[in-house]
Amino acid sequence: MSSPELIVDVLRAELRAANLTYKTLAERIDMSESSVKRMFGQKDMPLSRLAQICQAAGIALEDVLRQAADARPRPDALTLPQETSLVAKPRLLLVAICCLGYWSMEQIVDTYRLTPAECVGCLAELDRLGIIDLRPLNRYTLRVSNAFHWLPDGPVQHYFREQIVPDYFAGRFDGPGETLMCLPARLSPGSAAELAHKIHQLAGELTRLHRKDRRLPADEREGMTLLVGLRSWEFKAFTALRR
């Protein structure tokens, strides 16, 4: 489904939620009801008309556009060449991770030792790689879905294991909202699959909260990282004690 069709579908859903009929809308924008129905049936309208309808209905245009963007089919993961390009340039990987967190260019430059020109260069490269769509004024939209994950055992995961995991676990995990658990259990394959499914649901909940908090001021949000793993494993020192 193309973007114009998605936008019109989202707008129609918003009108239903507001209990606003085509007849009432037609009266508010000075059109005939049949013309309004035809416009929605064709699923195409100029931006000026879209803005007019949103204003008449009391709907925020930016919310309609954001919902349409979120509904557009997007991949859940990058390709192997895309990930390889990211890990080859740590600064590019940094900016990519910031983009996944919906940081603005200004936030990135204020936080890290990157000049505006360097940051724009990274954003442009991410656009060429097909990871973001770079917009005017150095704004962007992600070209990956909200269920995004790194490739299993891919270049980024290898990089994380070698460079990031030791640093991550060096923390005390005793700050506000922090926790660390390592829980052993003996499970059947069916129970392990059930638990893995619940882990995916937890990841979905993290995504939901991440999206919800995007509208809060930057100083009211803290960078958090959820690291979850489930595998058949025994500590090597324990394995050495087996009979």
Automatic annotation (TrEMBL):
<protein>
    <submittedName>
        <fullName>Helix-turn-helix domain-containing protein</fullName>
    </submittedName>
</protein>
<dbReference type="Pfam" id="PF13443">
    <property type="entry name" value="HTH_26"/>
</dbReference>
<dbReference type="InterPro" id="IPR010982">
    <property type="entry name" value="Lambda_DNA-bd_dom_sf"/>
</dbReference>
<dbReference type="InterPro" id="IPR001387">
    <property type="entry name" value="Cro/C1-type_HTH"/>
</dbReference>
<feature type="domain" description="HTH cro/C1-type">
    <location>
        <begin position="10"/>
        <end position="64"/>
    </location>
</feature>
